[in-house]
Specification:
This protein has 194 residues and is an alpha+beta fold. The protein has six helices and six strands.
Length: 194
């Protein structure tokens, strides 16, 4: 009997998202630095965490840390077990990579969609897939107007690596047409990096 994996997937509860982010931060930054950052945040959101990392560590280091925290967040999500069994369901795990990627992205979009209270739209593009979030919670660099969503890129990088049995896939921010465009767009290439 076939199971609709997407319908059986539920968004993460806010409390669990906060716990997973906190554990990911401790894994990457250690307890002391993680605690210092949390004390500076009025509320733990991706936007506030991103802003604080940029402020404390600078643009490049802050972006790199957010990618690493996103990757650790995905690992923690996978390690959290049975609640997200769609990722472990045999109907998903026994698919070939070409079928697993779009199904897995749809499952991840459902798990993470309510996380920012913004729906995720996945579409097929020439080199793979596009992950788009309208009005996404991002930090804009004040001087340039460039939007960054490194946390989500880190999650998707680790997700693709997990699907590909450790192979690396290019996951990168797509430039917006103008700085006023409210869409966050990430390109996910389906050809492994050699």
């Amino acid at each position: 009997m076939s199971v609709n994996l997407i319908d059986n997937t539920h968004p993460l509860p806010d409390a669990q998202v906060g716990d997973l982010i906190n554990l990911a931060m401790i894994e990457i930054l250690g307890e002391d630095v993680s605690g210092m950052i949390i004390r500076e945040l009025p509320v733990l959101t991706i936007s506030s965490l991103h802003f604080t990392c940029l402020k404390i560590f600078g643009k490049n280091s802050g972006e790199g840390l957010m990618i690493r925290i996103g990757r650790a967040f995905f690992r923690r999500l996978v390690l959290s077990g049975d609640e997200y069994s769609s990722l472990y369901h045999p109907q998903f795990r026994l698919q070939g990579i070409n079928r697993k990627i779009p199904l897995g992205l749809s499952i991840m979009a459902k798990i993470l969609g309510d996380f920012s209270s913004k729906p995720v739209v996945i579409s097929r593009v020439a080199e793979g897939y596009s992950w788009e979030v309208e009005d996404c919670p991002v930090i804009s660099a004040p001087a340039t107007g460039i939007k960054f969503f490194s946390f989500q890129i880190g999650i998707l990088q680790e997700f693709m690596s997990w699907l590909g049995n450790g192979r690396m896939y290019m996951v990168e921010q797509e430039p917006t047409l103008n700085s006023c465009e409210p869409v966050c767009r990430i390109k996910i290439c389906t050809q492994a990096v050699e």
